[in-house]
Design goal:
GO molecular function: DNA binding
Radius of gyration: 19 Å
Organism: Mucilaginibacter rubeus
InterPro entries: Homeodomain-like_sf, HTH_TetR, Tet_transcr_reg_TetR-rel_C_sf, TetR_C
Mean pLDDT: 91
CATH topology: Tetracycline Repressor, domain 2
Helix content: over 70%
Number of helices: 9
Low-confidence stretches: none
Strand content: under 5%
Pfam families: TetR_C_13 (PF16925), TetR_N (PF00440)
Structural class: mainly alpha
Number of domains: 1
Keywords: DNA-binding, Transcription, Transcription regulation
Number of strands: 0
Shape: elongated
């Protein structure tokens, strides 16, 4: 029984990994069942034998994709030696979006938020929680920097966190619709300047 369960979990993970770039590029509405069977090489029965429906696959794929981004960020933050450099990690990781080594399709948070909108409460909720988690992460770094005497004590922490997120996601959106990675570079330069301005 344990082997059957572990096999089922392996199959679920296989489906998630293989369909992750498809959902991130095409979105929930644009991804068809045939896209899923083509990406996995599995039958419809195999996919729906492991997931209730397409929405459940999409939700798990979002967690997988956003988790990959989060892992990159956390690894770099741990290596950074100052709170200023830790904050800059966000701009550095998203800068890789222009270099082709990001998750295929771009930022899963932006893609899912736009795709789900008010039509898919489950995916919208997952995107919202990811944004809140991101905001909290930035806020905690700023608080840590203030306590360590590295950052200015009068920073509006929430405003700064939300502004950073809005600039990064807005820059990604602009670069995608204009097919110009340079536009994201410009916005990320502004993020860099904002983080520089926080230093004592």
């Amino acid at each position: 029984m344990e082997n059957e369960l572990s096999k089922a979990e392996r199959t679920r993970q296989f489906i998630i990994e293989r369909t992750s770039p498809v959902f991130n590029k095409k979105g929930y509405a644009g991804t068809s069942l045939s896209d899923l069977t083509e990406a996995t090489g599995l039958t419809k029965g195999s996919i729906y034998g492991n997931f209730k429906n397409k929405e459940e696959v999409a939700a798990e794929v979002f967690e997988y994709n956003s988790g990959k981004v989060r892992k990159q960020i956390q690894e770099r933050i741990q290596r950074a030696t100052s709170y200023h450099d830790k904050l800059l990690v966000y701009a550095q990781v998203y800068h890789s979006f222009t270099r082709g080594d990001f998750i295929p399709g771009g930022c899963p948070i932006l893609n899912t938020a736009v795709d789900a909108d008010d039509t898919n409460p489950l995916l919208k909720d997952k995107a919202a929680k990811a944004v809140i988690r991101w905001k909290t992460g930035i806020e905690n770094l700023i608080k840590g920097g203030i306590e360590a005497g590295e950052l200015k004590p009068d920073i509006n922490i929430t405003e700064t966190a939300l502004s950073m997120i809005a600039m990064i996601e807005g820059g990604i959106m602009i670069s995608k619709v204009t097919d110009s990675p340079a536009n994201l570079d410009i916005v990320l330069t502004s993020v860099h300047s904002m983080v520089d301005s926080l230093k004592l």
